[in-house]
Specification:
Elements lengths: L13 H28 L27 H12 L2 E6 L2 E6 L2 H10 L11 H6 L13 H15 L1 H6 L1 H21 L6 H18 L5 E4 L4 E4 H16 L17 H30 L7 H8 L5 H15 L2 H15 L1 H15 L13 H14 L8 E2 L4 E3 L2 E3 L4 E4 L1 H5 L41 H18 E4 L10 E2 L4 E2 L4 E4 L12 H15 L44 E3 L5 E3 L17 H10 L3 H5 L7 E5 L3 E8 L1 H6 L31 E8 L6 H12 L7 E4 L4 E6 L6 E7 L6
Parallel strand pairs: 2-8, 15-18
Antiparallel strand pairs: 1-2, 3-4, 5-8, 6-7, 9-12, 10-11, 13-14, 16-17, 19-20
Helix pairs in contact: 7-8, 7-17, 8-12, 8-13, 9-10, 10-12, 13-15, 13-17
Bound molecules: protoporphyrin IX containing FE.
The site of protoporphyrin IX containing FE has 24 residues, from α5, α12, α13 and α17.
């Protein structure tokens, strides 16, 4: 927990000055009293923990103001040793910056240090410790931790959640590609990654990632980014809000209404949103949907929960998922951008294990260097630099020193991970320190996930997402810094979040082949590559005669997109309806119904719609609606389209003639100089495939469909019945890049 942000002293008013005067008198009395009693204890106990000198009343508060506290703590450790005590106002705090003593505190002496004394803000935001991570170690903690591991974060649950992670990683990759294709400048890794992590957390916790939500208690409908703000951003900021009474508990009777109101409002809004999400989910259960998320488990297995406990148990993984994993991944990408050799080494490792396939979780055990990068990032950039404060509730001994009951305990993970006698050159980012032969990396070696009975419950999920995320980003892009971003290592917030995002450039991969002697093999290899890139949807992009002894180069790119509907269609409700073909006949549509599209009013209006789209500039932008309307009847046919052609003639018709010209082609500069003569394009081949069914096709397009329905801009419910030819577009929303565009004239024809 970041303490620096807790150290702002409120501005003085006449009342606070008077109160402060009394406070100082009381505090000085307590200060000397506590010193006197410490002194008298010395003869019977192990020695007291060495103290960092401070000033009366404020103790060391002012010294902590300047820098991030974990840095200051680590610096003090060099002078005062691996364990020392400080005072934050009237509270005495012991700080540990050593692996060994931290383990002693978290494991051996755990029974004396297993409660928490929360700040005022955290007491409100955690509904008085109704969270695993912030509760005391008691029955409630054990029960809920067991539930969350069984249903969401443990190995079995993570196996079942795999589909959500894969979907998320595909989405992240697709958004980066769309971003880079559109404007190859700065890519905000954080924005994309964090938003997708939030989506994953929502699916895991409450069964669905929502685009908007009617929050009855607040009388408003919230969009996704507002929901994110209320559930994640506000509470993260609230957790580090400062109430000066936290430092002077004997002054807690003094009102601080403004502070309390701010935090209470955050808590009320969060509760209202969570209540609305739970209500929506109960509706889905009542409609017979087969769901398998944490909420389903809690509703069926843990009926003993009060409403408040249910809300908090579901909110907890949402806030915990959305930040730390992203922080780790972003720091890893920072280090890889800074160290091109490491980036290359990881890229080659992945190539040798995965070939042209995308990296998957099955590959992780064969990629020790990737794992080493993950762990070294956790060590060097400890995402949670200080473990949320523990409270010493009975006298104990740590590192050979006496620690009295009533002390707060700060385990400075950052300091432990920078300890010189444990880590050689700790300042240096060096994944090789985790590459010892035959050594499987102990998840707790870096202390980044804490340890003992309160070890992080989400470490497996964090590792899987972060490793696959890093792997895919290195497989598909080359990471370089933008201007002086390399020097920028500023952090902000509760975790060690980087201040500024990273910058990426697209990387194409190349391979040498033997056109002269093995043209058939080259064709087979390109086709196999296409098949892999499109997960088997496109098996043959090149015909056998496309390559011959004169071929010098083949460029290829592939887009593969897979997604599920936000709300799946119920196959039992799929019916056969008439589809009105352009010739006026009715084709029997024995397929099921799905998809997003531009449906002309007239049954034969498709051609004029296409013309309009082609001739009007920004047609799509101008027809993407800004708000949502309710659709009464929503019917669309299931369909499958596969289409392939040699595009030479079409491109030449469009005016792209020169590259095809045997004599004038002159693409010579693309290759090293040789006596080969002219280079020209001999063929451009294109294949595409789209399938739509009840499960979905892709998520971005789901959004587009919903939005499409909105463009009519009318208040009453409308029917949307695609029973005649229509157009569809699959578009990435953030960048506006169109991935696929097609027309369905007869859904029976594939
Ligand atoms: C790289 C990512 C992460 C890091 C570095 C991290 C770190 C930590 C740390 C240091 C603790 C405190 C342990 C203590 O108090 O002794 C903790 C606790 C916890 N974390 Fe994580 N965490 C990460 C990701 C996650 C994720 C993704 C989730 C859930 C979705 C999660 C859920 C929890 C829970 C429930 C606890 C409380 C455990 C307890 O008190 O028994 N964490 N984590």
């Amino acid at each position: 927990m970041a303490l620096t942000d807790m150290l702002q002293i409120p501005p003085a008013t006449p009342i606070t000055v008077a109160i402060t005067t009394v406070a100082i008198a009381v505090a000085i009395f307590l200060y000397f009293k506590s010193h006197a009693s410490n002194h008298s204890r010395r003869s019977t106990h192990p020695p007291p923990v060495p103290e960092v000198p401070g000033v009366p009343v404020l103790g060391n508060l002012l010294q902590l103001k300047e820098k991030k506290p974990y840095m200051t703590f680590t610096r003090w450790a060099q002078t005062y040793g691996p364990i020392y005590s400080i005072r934050t106002g009237a509270t005495s705090m012991v700080v540990i910056s050593s692996n060994e003593i931290a383990k002693e505190a978290m494991v051996t002496r755990f029974s004396s240090i297993s409660t928490r004394n929360l700040s005022k803000a955290l007491t409100i935001l955690t509904a008085d410790k109704t969270m695993v991570a912030m509760s005391d170690y008691n029955d409630y903690h054990r029960t809920v931790k067991r539930h969350i591991l069984t249903a969401m974060l443990g190995p079995n649950a993570q196996r079942k959640q795999r589909v959500h992670r894969d979907f998320m990683i595909e989405n992240i990759s697709m958004q980066f590609h769309a971003f880079v294709a559109n404007s190859p400048k700065e890519v905000d890794l954080r924005k994309i990654f964090q938003s997708e992590l939030f989506g994953l957390a929502m699916k895991q916790a409450v069964g669905k990632d929502v685009e908007s939500l009617n929050v009855e208690d607040l009388g408003i409908t919230m969009k996704r980014d507002e929901i994110f703000q209320v559930l994640v951003v506000d509470p993260m900021m609230g957790a580090i809000e400062v109430d000066w009474r936290d430092f002077f508990p004997y002054l807690k009777w003094v009102p601080n209404k403004k502070f309390e109101n701010t935090i209470q409002q955050m808590s009320i809004r969060r509760k209202a949103v969570m209540k609305a999400l739970i209500k929506e989910h109960k509706k889905r259960i009542a409609s017979g949907e087969n769901l398998n998320s944490y909420i389903d488990y809690l509703l069926s297995e843990a009926q003993i929960f009060s409403d408040e406990q249910l809300i908090m148990s579901l909110w907890e993984p949402i806030i915990e998922s959305s930040d730390t994993t992203m922080v780790t991944t972003e720091w890893a990408m920072y280090e890889l951008a800074k160290n091109p050799k490491m980036q290359d080494r990881l890229y080659r490792d992945i190539q040798s294990v995965c070939g042209s396939n995308k990296i998957t979780e099955e590959n992780l055990s064969q990629l020790p260097y990737l794992s080493a990068i993950f762990h070294e990032t956790l060590r060097r950039h400890s995402p949670v630099p200080i473990i949320p404060l523990r409270h010493v509730h009975e006298d104990t001994v740590l590192g050979g020193y006496h620690v009295p009951a009533g002390t707060e305990l700060a385990v400075n993970i950052y300091g432990c991970n920078m300890e010189k006698n444990v880590w050689e050159n700790p300042e240096e980012y060096n994944p090789d320190r985790f590459m010892k032969e035959n050594e499987t990396i102990d998840m707790q070696r870096t202390m980044a996930f804490g340890g003992g009975k309160r070890v992080c419950a989400g470490s497996l999920q964090a590792m899987l997402i972060s490793c696959i995320g890093i792997g895919r980003m290195v497989q598909e892009f080359e990471w370089r810094f933008k201007d002086k971003a390399e020097e920028d290592i500023s952090t902000l917030g509760l975790t060690t979040q980087r201040l500024n995002p990273l910058h990426t450039v697209y990387k194409a991969t190349s391979k040498k082949v033997d056109f002269l002697n093995k043209p058939e093999e080259v064709v087979a290899e390109v086709n196999l590559w296409a098949e892999k890139q499109t997960s088997g949807l496109i098996k043959e992009i090149l015909p056998l005669d496309a390559v011959n002894i004169d071929t010098r180069l083949i460029f290829a790119n592939a887009v593969y997109f897979k997604g599920v509907w936000n709300e799946k269609f119920d196959p039992s409700k799929t019916k056969d309806y008439d589809f009105h073909l352009l010739d006026g006949s009715k084709g029997e549509d024995n397929r099921r119904f799905t998809m997003y599209f531009f449906l002309p009013d007239a049954k034969d209006g498709l051609q004029s719609l296409i013309q309009k789209m082609g001739s009007e500039s920004n047609f799509l932008e101008r027809h993407v609606p800004v708000r949502k309307i309710e659709v009464e009847q929503f019917l669309i046919p299931k369909f499958k389209i596969s289409f392939g052609f040699k595009a030479n003639d079409l491109l030449m018709e469009l005016g792209l003639v020169l590259p095809f010209d045997h004599i004038e082609g002159r693409l010579t500069e693309m290759l090293e100089p040789s006596n080969d003569g002219n280079l020209f394009v001999s063929g451009v081949y294109h294949e595409s495939f789209v399938e739509v069914n009840e499960e979905g096709t892709e998520a971005a397009a789901v959004t587009a469909v919903v939005i499409q329905a909105q463009c009519m801009m009318i208040e009453e419910k409308v029917d949307f019945v695609a029973d005649h030819p229509f157009m569809f577009v699959i578009r990435e929303d953030m960048s506006g890049v169109v991935l696929f565009m097609g027309q369905v004239v007869d859904p029976r024809v594939t």
